[in-house]
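Private note to self, pasted from the team thread so I don't lose it. Backbone tokens:
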């Protein structure tokens, strides 16, 4: 049984999610990746590796080709810069998250030891 082009298009349209659902999913997925410390550091690791490989490739064997193509040159180094900026922002976010966790732990310990001091009778 053959379907017409219009029927195929209706099937594709009905199966695809609305754009706001895709955006909502992307935001929630990104939050999940960033909140997990191990995943965040793994992303930072691969991001720095990719930026270093691009830096090496752009300065060595791709240098001649990139010099001959201005738009490719600009796009290549812009992507390398964006990867570096992403690594910097992730590292800053990781630092802030570590400070937040440390502050929470310090407050917890302070409350624990103050509670122990109140329970102990002073002679």
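Design output:
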């Amino acid at each position: 049984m053959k379907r017409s082009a219009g029927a195929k298009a209706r099937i594709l349209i009905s199966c695809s999610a609305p754009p706001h659902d895709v955006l909502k999913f992307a935001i929630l997925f990104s939050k999940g990746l960033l909140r997990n410390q191990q995943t965040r550091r793994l992303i930072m690791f691969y991001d720095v590796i990719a930026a270093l490989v691009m830096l090496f490739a752009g300065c060595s064997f791709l240098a001649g080709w990139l010099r001959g193509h201005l738009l490719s040159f600009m796009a290549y180094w812009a992507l390398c810069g964006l990867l570096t900026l992403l690594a910097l922002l992730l590292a800053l976010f990781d630092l802030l998250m570590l400070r937040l966790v440390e502050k929470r732990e310090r407050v917890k310990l302070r409350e624990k030891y103050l509670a122990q001091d109140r329970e102990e009778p002073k002679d």
